[in-house]
Specification:
Elements lengths: L2 H20 L2 H13 L6 H4 L2 H14 L8 E6 L5 E7 L18 H9 L8 E5 L10 H7 L4 E5 L11 H4 L6 H15 L5 E6 L1 H12 L1 H7 E7 L15 H19 L2 H10 L1 H12 L7 H12 L3 H13 L14 E6 L7 H10 L4 E5 L6 H4 L1 H14 L9
Helix pairs in contact: 1-2, 2-11, 4-14, 5-6, 5-18, 6-18, 8-9, 9-10, 11-15, 13-14
Protein name: Pimeloyl-ACP methyl ester carboxylesterase
Keywords: Membrane, Transmembrane, Transmembrane helix
InterPro entries: AB_hydrolase, AB_hydrolase_1, AB_hydrolase_fold
């Protein structure tokens, strides 16, 4: 980056921080953190007028089909009474699936025909669990590819997407990964009470699956046919440096828990400041979501929408759970199963070394490190992820092998 560009980045970050200061102490704190990470913001954010960027975002929101796929809705009830929203895509006659499945699939529809050829045999249900600050729609491409070929369940984790805000959290109970594992059990009981299961989880969703295995090993033993862990970790997330220098990451670790707690208590104020600095945060989202430079702008904007839709108080209440997360002891529950472990080689949130650590405990698993990929690998390189999932499903007979 040139001296002029670096100066512009710093100036923009300083302006953003100043805006947060006007919103109050909590805003100032997050502004400082944002300024510290702003060196990674794409330069085009600083060279295009704000009004033009706003119009571009509106145009992408209007034309982009991502996140538009819908299934049969349902609700499960967690052990604290929280209602968890899920959708089911059933297997239908006339594969490759219902006509609506092709909406927004793009090249994925032809890929779907090549991979599977006809309707999947057998009553397998594939359950997709999404990551932190996302929703079930983050699996858009994989959902489009599998639709009509195998039964799938997509659900929103508590306080995310269309699920209810965690009732225990409203009463002051901290959310933990163990709670998410129990939530997944409630969704399975409601949406797929019988038959073999394939569990697929990204980031926090993979951790949720580990918590399920820890709490309900008999469910894994009796019903789970295969597992896919995408961009996730079994522990030691407190050691991740997020691509920052040592001094920077140490400073962030010291202040971030307190800052998030303060922000969560002033949610309305912070959301106003968040909107005021949308361009800066869009750059940060891009940096920490993707590893390649040529991401489809509509996909990048879709990721922004998913993350921006998560209220700041939800962000704050979930964050401590990750530093406490340690489910390496649950991994042996997957030892006798076909397992896919997949990560991006440029993931700054759950680095690929964490996937390699999981693979060390599951030596028979297939480990795939996707080149030029970041944390949202299933959106950035959708066909790579879909192909690997298809291979896994073919291995267990959930879908047929390619027909010549």
């Amino acid at each position: 980056m040139s001296e002029t560009s670096a100066g512009d980045v710093a100036a923009t970050a300083a302006v953003a921080a100043a805006g947060w200061r006007r919103a109050g102490f909590a805003g100032a704190a997050i502004g400082v953190i944002a300024a510290g990470a702003a060196a990674g913001v794409a330069v085009e954010r600083l060279t295009v007028g704000r009004g033009m960027r706003r119009k571009a975002r509106l145009a992408l929101d209007a034309s982009g089909p991502y996140g538009s796929l819908r299934g049969i809705p349902g609700r499960a009830v967690a052990d604290d009474g929280t209602q968890l929203y899920y959708e089911v895509d059933e297997v239908e006659d006339g594969a490759p699936g219902r006509s609506g499945a092709r909406q927004g699939a793009g090249a994925s529809s032809s890929r779907r025909r090549r991979l599977f050829g006809r309707k999947a045999p057998g009553p397998v249900t594939v359950v997709f669990s999404h990551g932190y600050c996302l929703s079930q729609d983050s699996w858009h491409f994989q959902r489009a590819a599998l639709r009509g070929l195998v039964r799938t369940v997509h659900w929103d984790q508590r306080s995310h997407g269309r699920s209810e805000r965690g009732r225990a959290q409203a009463d002051g109970v901290p959310v933990g990964i163990d709670q998410l594992g129990r939530d997944l059990k409630a969704v399975i009981d409601a949406a797929a009470p019988e038959g073999p299961l394939v569990l697929v989880g990204h980031s926090m969703g993979g951790m949720t699956m580990m918590a399920l295995a820890d709490r309900y090993p008999e469910l894994i033993r009796d019903r789970v046919a295969a597992v896919a862990l995408v961009g996730t970790s079994s522990g030691k997330l407190g050691e991740v440096n997020f691509g920052l220098p040592v001094a920077g990451v140490n400073a962030v670790r010291r202040v971030l828990p307190g800052v998030l707690k303060a922000l969560g208590s002033q949610a309305e104020l912070v959301e106003r400041g968040r909107r005021a600095t949308a361009d800066l945060f869009a750059g940060l989202i891009k940096r920490y979501s993707f590893g390649s430079r040529d991401v489809d702008p509509a996909v990048s904007r879709f990721a922004e929408r998913l993350i921006e839709s998560t209220p700041i108080d939800v962000v704050a209440e979930f964050y401590p759970a990750f530093t406490e997360h340690d489910k390496s002891g649950a991994l042996p529950a997957f030892l006798d199963l076909p397992v896919l472990i997949l990560a991006g080689d440029k993931d700054l949130v759950t680095p690929s070394s964490h996937s390699e650590a999981i693979a060390d405990q599951l030596p028979d698993a297939e480990l795939v490190i996707v080149p030029d990929a970041g944390h949202l690998v299933m959106l950035e390189h959708p066909e790579t992820v879909t192909d690997r999932l298809a291979d896994l499903l073919v291995r267990i007979g959930a879908v047929p092998a390619e027909v010549p």
